Amino acid sequence: MIKRETTDGGFALLYAVLMVSIVLAVSLSLLNIAYRQSVLTAIARESLVAGSAAETGLACALYYNASSNSNDDTSGTDKEPFGMYYQSDPTANWAFLPGTVNTIKCRDASDTTDLIHSNGSGAPPWPGSSVNFYRSAFALKFSDGSCAAVKVTKYFGSSIPTLAVADQVDILVEGYSFSTGVNATSGECEIAGARIVERTLRARVNH
Fold first, then answer.
1. Residue-wise pLDDT tens digits, 172-195
2. Where along the chain do its domains lie?
3. I need a labelling partner for 143 at 20 to 30 A (CA). Which of 16, 67, 165, 189 fits?
4. What is the model's pTM?
5. Rounded CA gap, 70 and 50, in Å?
6. pLDDT (tens digit, 9 = 90+) per residue, 71-108?
């Protein structure tokens, strides 16, 4: 009589390998979910930082733009950073005087650029014909590492009828969650890093 011996060792090993594979797959899936959640949380946090920088830059530009009521000036002596409209008397054509103030200070900006001015002509971002414009650009780098690049463009005409259409100010602000500094030549934020969040705000106001 032949006696056969049976063993479950091979099946036990296969079962153990299968269970380890399942546990490993589940662990990797959970790790991947946790990583994605951390990335989304970081992006949301950086988005708030960039948004705060953009809002501060916009509020700063609005504050300085409203620092003087240039449309009511009839002497040509009222100065503001972004330039001013000037009319010598109610019947005269409008003229535009460039700004003379070059320093902008807002919040806890640790690094700033002087105002960089340029001028030209073109159609504004809203419907309208081509008119003259005067643009002032500056950048603000805040203590938390965020930065705001601001462009204030004033559109104006040379006569009373065109001023009614062109008497508008376009403010474009780009806020960044992190910046290495500001570029004194271009008035832009210097960006470096693999993941930088940007938020853009735009405002149109009457001068």
1. 898 888 888 888 888 888 887 667
2. 41-206
3. 67
4. 0.71
5. 32
6. 444 444 445 788 776 666 666 666 667 776 677 888 78
